[in-house]
Amino acid sequence: RAKQKSRGTISLYQPEMDQQIRDRRVLHQDLSKAIKNGELSLAFQPQGIAGKTVADSEIIGFEALARWAHPVRGQVSPAEFIPIAEESGLIVEMGEWILRQVCREAASWPKPLQVAVNLSPAQFLHGDVVGLVHSILLETGLAPGRLELEITEGVLIEDFDRGLALLRRLKALGVRISMDDFGSGYSSLSYLQAFPFDKIKIDRAFIVNLGRNPQSAAIVRAVIDLGHGLEMSIIAEGVETIDQLAFLAKEGCDGVQGYLLGKPLPIGHYAGLIGRAGADAMELELKTG
Ligand code: C2E
Ligand code: MG
Ligand code: MG
Ligand code: MG
Predict the structure, then answer these.
(1) Is 205 helix (H, G, I), strand (E, B) or coil?
(2) Residue 14 CA, ligand 1 centroid: distance in Å
C-alpha cells in the first residue's frame, strides 16, 4: 500500500496487484536470509513509572522491538515484515532469535531492569513456546522475573483452551504476561477475567486522543480502574506529551511508554539507564569538561 502511494498512484488494476504479490514474495525471500546475514537487530524503548513529569517517571525497563535493515530498501517496518514472517512460518525461527537476543542482552545489563518482548500468535500457537522460553532463560541466565511476554488477543481468540494452558505454564516459569494493544481489536472483557495477565497495555489510539476528546479520557480512566480491580497493572502506550503523562499519573496509571520518555533505539543509546560504565564516564566527562 505505502509503495503504491509513494509512486503517486492508487490502483486496483491487475498489474499493480501482481506487483504487490511479487514484492511480498521477494521480501519473504530476503527475510529468510535476514537472520543469517545479520540484518535483524533490536531497538529498546524505555518504560517508566508514571510520574507527573518526565524527571519523576523512573525508568524500570524496556520493550524490545525488532528492526530489519534491508540491504537495498533500508529500514523495513515491523508492521510490514512481521506479518510476512507470520504467514510464511518464518516467525518461529525469527521469534526464537529475537527472544534469545533480548534475554542475552538484558542478562548483561548491570542494573536488573525489566525487559518485554512481543510474541506473535503463530509463535505462540505453532511452536513450543514454553519449552523455548524455559531453555533460553536457562541458557542466558536471565532471572525469569525480569522477562515480560507481550501478547495480543489474537493469540487467545484462535484457541481459548490451549491459550489458557500455555499462559499458565509460562507464568509457572516465573515470567510475566501482558496484554498488548488493549482496546484496539475485539478486546473482550471476558478475556481479562479468564486469562491470568499481569499487565494491560492501553493502546496508543486512546492516549493520542486524550486531550482531544473526553470519551478517550473516560475509557482510559475506566481501563485503569478495571485493571486494578483485577489486580493487574496498567501501562499506557504511545505517550508523547507532558499533558498525557500528567493525566495518566493523576489517574493512577502505573506505567508509561512512548516517545516522551524515549524512542526505540539501539541499547547503546540507553547505556546510562542500564548502568553501563562507559556511559557514566561519558557523563562525568560532560559535567567536568
Ligand atoms: P507494539 O508491540 O504495540 O509496539 C509499540 C509500537 O509503537 C512500536 O512500533 C513503537 O515504535 C511504537 N511507539 C512507541 N511509542 C510511540 C509513540 O509515542 N508514538 C508513536 N507514534 N509510536 C510509538 P514498531 O517498532 O514499528 O512495531 C510495530 C509492531 O510490530 C509492534 O507493536 C509489534 O506488534 C510488532 N513487533 C515489533 N517487534 C516485534 C517482535 O520482535 N516480535 C513480534 N512478534 N512483533 C513485533
Ligand atoms: Mg508490544
Ligand atoms: Mg502495543
Ligand atoms: Mg501494536
Answers:
(1) helix
(2) 32
ipTM (interface pTM) = 0.98
Q: Where are the beta strands (DSSP E) in the chain?
A: 40-49, 59-70, 74-76, 114-118, 147-151, 176-182, 199-202, 233-236, 255-257
Helix (H) / strand (E) element for 42: namely strand 40-49
Grid coordinates representing 187? 478486546
Take atom 45 of ligand 1 and give the residue whose Cα is closest.
Answer: 118
d(CA 184, CA 21): 28
Task: Give pTM, 2 decimals.
Answer: 0.91
Per residue in 204-236, pLDDT (tens digit) is 999 999 988 899 999 999 999 999 999 999 999
Q: Which residues pair with 199 in a beta bridge?
A: 178, 233
Q: Which residue among 45, 65, 263 is best mutated to probe the pocket of ligand 1, counting the most ligand atoms within 8 A of its Cβ?
A: 65
State CA 115 to chain mean position distance. Answer: 10
All three cell numbers of 264, joined, read 526505540
**Other CB atoms within 10 A of residue 249 CB:** 18
